[in-house]
Model the fold of this input.
Amino acid sequence: MPIEYETLRNFPIPEIRQRLRWQDAALYALSLGCGQDPMDEAELRFVTEGAAMRALPSMAVVLGYPGFWLRDPATGVDALRLVHGEQAVTLHAPLPVAGEVIGRSRVTGLVDRGAGKGALLYSERAILDAATGARLATLEQTTFLRGDGGFGGPDGPVKKPAPEPEGAPDLVLDIPTRPEMALLYRLNGDHNPLHSDPGVAAKAGFPRPILHGLATFGVVGRALLKAVCGGDPARFGRMECRFSAPVFPGETIRTEIWPDTDGAAFRARAVERDVVVVGNGRFRFGPLDPQPAEG
Done:
């Protein structure tokens, strides 16, 4: 069935309550490559239990995750042809390594680009502390619905990406990914077979399974945390970017950074192919905009 604008725009995405354990925080960090150097004490605190343990700021993207809800036939979306286009995370407080969180997701916009041109779906997820109602993080996502234009929806407004930086970067940080990284990352809850099944990857036009876009996002987040935050999660405020090409597990992700007084502009490339995989990147120091408790 084709997309019906009002149905998708107001689709009831389930609220998710998640019990978070230190093991979950450690798994997330390990799935992004933390701990490969057993002598790197700055990274060991993201994978080792105890009072000094901290959560990676980008872990917000796997909290309160409602699953691959766009696969539901009632959405009208061609789920095999959608692409995760843009992602932003805003931290309102440092993330806990244990406790209970709530994820509340909603569609915030739907743009029809026309027949044969696809559509843009904007969505948001609030991550709340279940005990206090305090908002810990806000996630914003743009999904490109490549096979779903021409349903009669509005042609705007379209979000404008952050400008691309100019000149040579001031900081460059390379982080290798492992060949099995996608298989590890899917244990965080994203079981899309595009990242694990060679047959599904081939049907989508890829020579082999690709890395989750949010895994690439997390690796770049690690680079920003180290390069501009001194490894301190409390300084991590907001990160936003556009995914411009997939990463294949085993490739090296090079994050190029242009720091400024508010944070930094950034982009990332797959070193082995010299392909930009993340563009229009913008980082701000934080935490940002403390939010009142929600019911």
About this structure: Helices lie at 5-9, 22-31, 41-44, 181-185, 198-203, 213-228. The two ends are 36 Å apart (CA to CA). The mean pLDDT is 95.
